[in-house]
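Researcher: I'd like a structural prediction for the single chain below. Treat it as a standalone chain; there are no partners to consider.
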Amino acid sequence: MSTQLQHAICPTRAEDYPEWYQQVVRAADLAENSPVRGCMVIKPWGYAIWENIQRTLDSRFRALGVRNAYFPLFIPLSFLVKEAKHVEGFAKECAVVTHHRLESDGQGGLRPAAPLEEPLVVRPTSETIIGAMFAKWVQSYRDLPLLINQWANVVRWEMRPRLFLRTAEFLWQEGHTVHANAEEAMAFARQMLEVYADFVENYLAIPVIKGEKPESERFPGAEATFTIEAMMQDRKALQAGTSHFLGQNFAKASDIKFLGPAGREEYAWTTSWGVSTRLIGAIVMTHGDDDGLVVPPRVAPAHVAILPVVHKEEHRGVVLEFCERVKKELESRLFDGLPVRVELDLREMRGGDKVWDWIKKGVPLRLEIGPRDVAQDAVFVGRRDNPPRERQSLPRAEFVARIADLLADIQSNLLTKARAFRDQYTVRLDSKADFYDFFTPKDPEKPEIHGGFALCHWGEDPEVENRLKEDLQVSIRCIPLDIPEESGKCPFTGKKSLRRVVFAKAY
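Model: Treating it as a single chain, here is the predicted structure.
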């Protein structure tokens, strides 16, 4: 059996896509299941990706005047009840604390001792608790706009957990803003959607469709929900980020009022917006291949892994010295305005195993350096966006000088390939028969790989939405913002329509 076959991910994407995903997460050492059902432990390589996502987004938020704060993990149950649609939307996912303190049960175990005066919900999202604080902080129009973000964890009790995509606890950022009028609030909600879309496309190399959710898919309690939708390699949609125009619903529930310039008291207008560690799952499913993870350079924990190749002890000193020199030279160069990140792998393990470990981790560039390379003042280079066996020898000075261009080329190549894949499986459909055929698996042995994005006219009929969910597990992902109006007819009802919407199966 060849080394490549020994190290490849099994099963492949085509054989069993859900299991392939789990194997890539495991092989890349991103995360693993914790002893608590539905929760995950994010390991250093996975958390470093999240830190790079966090660093970039945080700088963009700050540039817009958003400031970071932190709010409690526990929310009084009565706070959620104030906003009826909100509590209804999250009720099935809530984890609730009803007691404090433990005591012996007299049989060698423990039991809850003291009931709380009021149950506490472990935050599924923070609109209500943040709204209670905003009601104290906002008194006058001069206090507005109030732009706050928090980096935190949330809990939503998932029945079918999957690492990064759906877990009972996950990490995210949630922004919350208060404005003096509807126009400003709506403009800010749309602006945050643009921030997310630009980041996901240009940093994660994942093409997205920007759109508005239909009423049935809105965030509970929102007047409008905007989304970015990405296509994964099984052709399902992944909601990669959302921004919500909340109108005055939460302001009225939390009593967020201010005195306007004329001295009249008014309810404020609010927004909320967020992305989560689900984005790491999006990276896996957009760029991963049958050899493992592929990480876009802009968020990669390391840009370059240097792998010394030492077969004889007498060569060790000169090889390691050369590797250290290359590492320092690379770290003196800039990519995307920051020093190039380099890992020098000095672990004692078989060379082939070490190479495949970095391939599975998805490091953009790997250098294999042995005595022959040192003698030629060269490095043996492998790009992760190319097949593992495609490698080339480059002069050391040339590689160092070109490092930023090489990383930029990998970044661009990943986005180009992902966009081509999405476009290949995005179709315009105008008949019910074609629609059902598109979303029906053709190969019973590979039911996961089919469908894509269907752009169809829609008669805004809730019964049609429900029937498509029942028949095909297909839903309206969004009403695209960048696709011009086009007159037509709904293929399901015959009703006139002025726009196409995006239908897809989704995570």
